[in-house]
Amino acid sequence: MSAPAAPLEAQDPERARALKAKIRDRVTDVRRHLIALRAAMAEFGEDFDLDMFQRAYASEDPAELNRVNAVERGVDKLYNTIAELTAFGLELAEVRPRAADLNARRDLANLRRIGVIGPERARRLERLRELRRLLVHEYATATAEQVHEAALIVADEFAPFYDAYRAWIGRGFSSE
To answer: Residue 41: is it exposed, middle or buried by C-beta count within 10 angstroms (0-12/13-18/19+)?
Structure first.
């Protein structure tokens, strides 16, 4: 990913190089995970049938639960990639300080505020963030419907998010 210099490079070229390497690592690895998530979703019918998914989610059969777990893990992996790319990009753009606590809600709001993503994409990614929080931290009460919704959001939104992100980097982290 060759891009114009990031604002951070003037102040901390070593940190900028490290962040760009992390971005490259995530981007290089993400395609196979998106394909894997879509394949896991297709196990539940061509249109990722909610009824089929609910039955597997409630099943005692380990093979069925493993199919559900493949969807959940795919959601988590791709969400984490979105959150990391966002944090790394905002730091490179000097919108997010290096020492700032991890806060995906704030970071996604900042991407929207500076014009990298539009309001509808921001709303959907915020919904994904909330669903992922429930799945990871409230997993005992998470529902099949929540996992299903999160999978649909990340499968639909990852590529457009990445396109907007890549365009932002290509503009030298400018919102215009």
So the answer is: buried
Task: Domain 8-170: give its CATH architecture.
Answer: Up-down Bundle (1.20)
Residues 83, 84, 87, CA angle at the centre, nearest 5°? 85
Residue 84 CB-density burial (10 A; 0-12 exposed, 13-18 middle, 19+ buried): middle
The residue type of 164 is A
pLDDT in tens, 21-54: 999 999 999 999 999 999 999 999 999 999 999 9
| Residue 60, amino acid | E
pTM given for the model: 0.94
> Taking the domains of the chain in order of start, what are their residue ranges?
8-170
